[in-house]
């Protein structure tokens, strides 16, 4: 018995199914790596944000603008929110958003239990080594744990943020 050949879409067909132009701000889902350590992760997250229809919120630091420019492989600009003070910004976001942090806490839910966002949601990502600071953890509505079988304690920020963003966008 021979297998049916799989249909592979051409680049032109794929392009026709996607947005014709970049958004100025989808603002339903915001991925917020507010304490970044590595610039390469920011470029990856920017690409993921475009893929899931999210915006990226980053602290306003000189090296971050350069990291985003270097890592942005998209031809059109993406939706970026610049944050001066992460704790103040998060406090403001809580007024009209669900705040979900990727962090190990006693109350963390597993990624598989996370449901797609039904209202404006901010995904908070911490520092590569130190996680989300305690003052910011207190501002989370939900903490999400990404289960791991290996010896590492966590995934890098770009991978963790991408998994949670896809889940909240309802794409996985």
Task: Indicate the topology.
Blueprint lengths: L10 H7 L11 E5 L5 H14 L2 E5 L2 H10 L8 E4 L2 H8 L4 E5 L6 E2 L10 E5 L8 H4 L4 E4 L11 H12 L4
Parallel strand pairs: 1-2, 1-6, 2-3, 4-6, 4-7, 5-7
Helix pairs in contact: 2-3, 2-6
Task: Give a summary of the structure in a few sentences.
The chain is of the alpha/beta class. 32% of the residues lie in helices and 17% in strands. It has one domain (29-168): SPOUT methyltransferase, trefoil knot domain (Alpha/beta knot).
Structure write-up:
By secondary structure, the protein is α/β, with parallel strands linked by helices. 32% of the residues lie in helices and 17% in strands. It has one domain (29-168): 3-Layer(aba) Sandwich (Alpha/beta knot). The protein contains 6 helices and 7 strands, in the order αβαβαβαβββαβα. It has a 7-stranded parallel β-sheet with strand order 3-2-1-6-4-7-5, with helices on both faces. Helix 3 (62-71) links the parallel strand 2 (55-59) and strand 3. Helix 2 (39-52) crosses helix 3 (62-71) and helix 2 runs parallel beside helix 6 (157-168). The longest helix is centred in the first third of the chain and has 14 residues, at 39-52. The protein is globular and about 55 Å long. Residues 36-166 form the tRNA/rRNA methyltransferase SpoU type domain. GO terms for molecular function: methyltransferase activity. Keywords: Methyltransferase, Transferase.
